[in-house]
Specification:
alpha+beta, Class II Histocompatibility Antigen, M Beta Chain, Chain B, domain 1, Immunoglobulin-like, four-stranded antiparallel sheet, 2 helices, 33% strand, Ig-like_fold, MHC_II_a/b_N, transmembrane helix
């Protein structure tokens, strides 16, 4: 059997748009760390990952690389602006729940935006056409093998029948947006039957409880009436 081949990549990008700098370490296209340039530190993609070994690359070395990238970009832009067309990718978005969706149970929607180039898109959420920002989180850009980027956005939610969620991707200067929708799935006939049976059982239980209370009340009232008749003296 052929040995399994893995790929570790460290990608640095710089651009005039925000974010002006980005540095990511990936393993088999999965982001492990991203570099926080304002804080001069590596940040793990997942909290359970171990901290970045500081002896591998110091923040000073990475900042020198970033400065070189920006200077090279400025020089190349001055040479080729107006001569070469600007390269832009059309984002492709997909929305799906993090866990299998169940009505009434908390979940998280994931918006995966692929074919991002340059990495300067804005991701927003809408719930029934109303913008939502509370609880929304985004990942940093992750490079892909086709020289583009992918980015994820997360929205905590609780599925309710009939709700419609939208992930809206925009880029400054573009006249259009890319929108991906997720509609809360309708309950299956089995789920509807189960809900109806549970409701019927609950209603029957309440009815039987009320009927039992009424019978006890009537029995006590009847017993009191009998006691009065037995104890009354003859006229």
């Amino acid at each position: 059997a052929e040995p399994v081949v893995h790929a570790v990549a460290e990608v640095l990008f710089c651009q005039p748009a925000a974010p002006s700098l980005g540095l990511t370490l990936t393993f088999d296209a999965d982001q492990l760390f991203w570099f926080d340039f304002p804080g001069s530190r590596w940040t793990p993609r997942l909290p359970e990952l171990p901290p970045w070994p500081p002896a591998l690359e110091t923040p000073a070395q990475l900042l020198r690389d970033a400065t070189f990238c920006q200077e090279l970009r400025r020089q190349l832009s001055a040479e080729v602006t107006g001569l070469l067309p600007e390269s832009k990718g059309v984002p492709v978005a997909d929305v799906f729940p993090l866990q299998p969706a169940t009505l009434g149970e908390p979940n998280t929607l994931v918006c995966m935006v692929e074919n991002v180039f340059p990495p300067d898109v804005t991701i927003g959420w809408q719930h029934n056409s109303v913008p939502v920002t509370q609880g929304v989180t985004h990942t940093h850009y992750t490079p892909t093998a086709d020289l583009a980027f992918v980015r994820f956005s997360y929205l905590p939610m609780t599925p309710i029948a009939g709700d419609v969620y939208a992930c809206v991707i925009t880029r400054e200067g573009d006249n259009s947006s890319v929108i991906a929708y997720w509609v809360t799935p309708k309950p299956t006939p089995a789920e509807v039957l189960e809900t109806a049976l549970c409701g019927a059982a609950m209603a029957l239980g309440i009815l039987l409880a009320l009927l039992g209370a009424a019978m006890m009340f009537l029995a006590r009232r009847s017993a009191r009436g009998t006691a009065r008749r037995v104890g009354c003296p003859p006229k």
